Amino acid sequence: MKKKIDCMFIRNGNVVGFTIFDMDERFRKYGEYESLNGLRIQSMDCPEISDQVLYLRGKTREHDRDIVQMSFETKEEAKEYISRAAEALKDWAENCPAFEDDKFETESDIDNRITHVVI
């Protein structure tokens, strides 16, 4: 089974860093997926994080391995964002229409799709 995404979040105080090591190519430039918690997962140009959207790899391949970051008001907000983003990525991996042919996988397979979430 191919993982949907292999990524890492790193928090240093109130700053969150994000990088993608590997991503299922079926989602590249797929468009947008709105997770159940409201955070949108989108593939457009290159990785980026914002309050409302987590941008994954897109058409600008030379930025695929960039480490992007975002500052929050407090370290608690930064921790909350990482939890929210991890939850949104799990929802995306389970329910994004780009992965419809994966519906036969087990729940334990789904839990193994997201790795390297560091809090």
The helix/strand series, from N terminus to C terminus, equals EEEEEEEHH
Strand content: 25-35%
N→C terminal distance: 26 Å
Number of alpha- plus pi-helical segments: 2
* Category by helix and strand content: alpha+beta
Kindly list the characteristics that best describe this protein.
alpha+beta, 119 residues, 7 strands, 2 helices
Describe this structure in words.
The chain contains 2 helices and 7 strands. A hairpin with a 2-residue loop joins strand 1 (5-12) and strand 2. The protein starts with a strand and ends in an 8-residue tail after the last helix. The protein has helices spanning 75-95, 107-111; strands at residues 5-12, 15-23, 32-34, 40-43, 48-49, 53-56, 68-71. It has 119 residues and is α+β, with helices and mostly antiparallel strands. It has a 4-stranded mixed β-sheet with strand order 3-4-6-5, covered by helices on one side. A 3-stranded antiparallel β-sheet has the order 1-2-7, covered by helices on one side.
Quick overview:
This protein has 119 residues and is an alpha+beta fold. It has two helices and seven strands.
Strand-helix topology:
Elements: E1 5-12, E2 15-23, E3 32-34, E4 40-43, E5 48-49, E6 53-56, E7 68-71, H1 75-95, H2 107-111
Parallel strand pairs: 4-6
Antiparallel strand pairs: 1-2, 2-7, 3-4, 5-6
